[in-house]
Amino acid sequence: MARRSDKGRTTFVKARRASVWPWLGLAAFLILIDQFTKVLIVGYYQLGDVTRVTGFFDVVRAHNTGAAFSFLASAGGWQRWLFTGIGVAAAIFITWMLRSHANQRLFAFALACILGGAVGNVIDRVMYGYVVDFLQFHWSFLKPIFHGGYFPAFNVADSAITVGAGCMILDEILRVRRSK
Questions:
Q1: Active site (annotated) includes residue 133
Q2: Does residue 158 have an active-site annotation?
């Protein structure tokens, strides 16, 4: 409830609260796109298959049992459930945050992207035991950083998380600037 004073009278009006549903819808849309593309890759590619699309981009089938950049990929299997648990906990927390901040468009967009990506990768971990990656970029200037100049393969969910993280940083920069 918000207070409003009109000509000496104080009245209470309900503050408008933005709906969380459009943001959950965006997250669901990202999950569907992510899973659809992964079903295509799993259906048409064997592990290690590569299709050269351009001089700097390939479609591949790679499995990641670890986290970003294959962190803990060779840990023996326990990491599957650790990363699944982290993803589920993150999804619950992000959904709660979305309910609280649905009216903050850029922040809610960022949260929805991260939520969609996190759930997309959790689905992979539960179904396959690994995350299916298939987008791979390579440039010669990356050779000092990545073997052969190949950036690690990733997927739609990873892209959504990255876009969400970037938007969250942008939202914070804009918020700080507005407060000055």
A1: yes
A2: yes
